[in-house]
Amino acid sequence: MDRKLVSSWYNLHSSVPPSYVQPPERRPGNAVIATGINIPVIDIGGHDRDDIIRDVMKASEEFGFFQVINHGVSKELVEDTLGIFKGFHAMPVNEKISESSKDPNGSCKLYTSSGRNNQDVALYWKDSLQHPCPPSGDFMEYWPEKPAGYREIVGKYTQELRKLGLKILDLLAEGLGLDPKYFYGELSENAVVISHLYPPCPEPSLTLGASKHKDPNILTILLQQADITALQVFKDGAWIPVEPIPNAFVVNMGFMLQIISNGRLIGAEHRVITNSSTARHTIAYFINPTKEAFIEPAKPLLSSTSPPIYRSMTFGELLGNFLNKGPYFEPELLLEPSKKI
Known about the structure:
Layout (H helix, E strand, L loop, with lengths): L5 H4 L31 E3 L5 H14 L2 E5 L5 H16 L2 H7 L9 E4 L14 E6 L17 H27 L13 E9 L11 E4 L5 E6 L6 E5 L2 E4 L7 E5 L1 H6 L9 E3 L7 E9 L5 E2 L17 E2 H11 L16
Parallel strand pairs: 1-2
Antiparallel strand pairs: 2-10, 3-4, 4-5, 5-12, 6-11, 7-10, 7-12, 8-9, 8-11, 13-14
């Protein structure tokens, strides 16, 4: 692992190793970049709930992405958490490996590239630390203990992100006409936090931090490092850069919401580009169902004129498809395989 981590060797090369060079059709310079378009920014702390629901639904249907401000998570906690993860990735390699290898089941782990089982066409320019953070606090015994304060600070942060995530899911459920607590319980019990480090890259035009994909979960809440624009959302044949906003979170619909809403909400495709001058850190909070939970179009949304588009499956089955096949598994989830999403 010490030789695989990008952060261990990136500054020893003046060019990108061949295994990290993306095919020409995937390279950032060969894509259309949207100008004058931004994903919506929503004041989620506003007083008019109907207005907030309308804005959240519109953004989720048109972009699958939005940013939230006035979200209730303190600026101090956000900065402390980012500092903790920066400190983790800056530790000596042996310490990082030791601190992230305590879980015998491997759910707390340090990895590089995509972390998926399939052999992709090229590796991705990032290192990632991942571990579960259920509401009960289980698994915390396997979390890193270094840097000092890791468990306390990351524990507080993930508790606050859970509150924010459930608040957003309440708004989406209400906007869809479902019970406001529709997503509670097994549809949102298995949260995961992932800290990504994207080191400077000598040839960013040849690489990606993450390929074009949809998140295979319910909802993702992302903290972006300020002043570095690298996340891009795909819409109408072009890539929209997601500019970091101070003390804001990026929210994106997971593919599960696309299924549950029977195609009304968009699990939007997105990617991450690299840069040559500055290391970039992000913190992603993924709201996942239990592996046993059945994922299917919500029955109250179905009728004779709105039949189900997707077949029913467990989240474990869907996640297995994603980890083995990457972002190309969607057609087999359709009830009509020939129909495009």
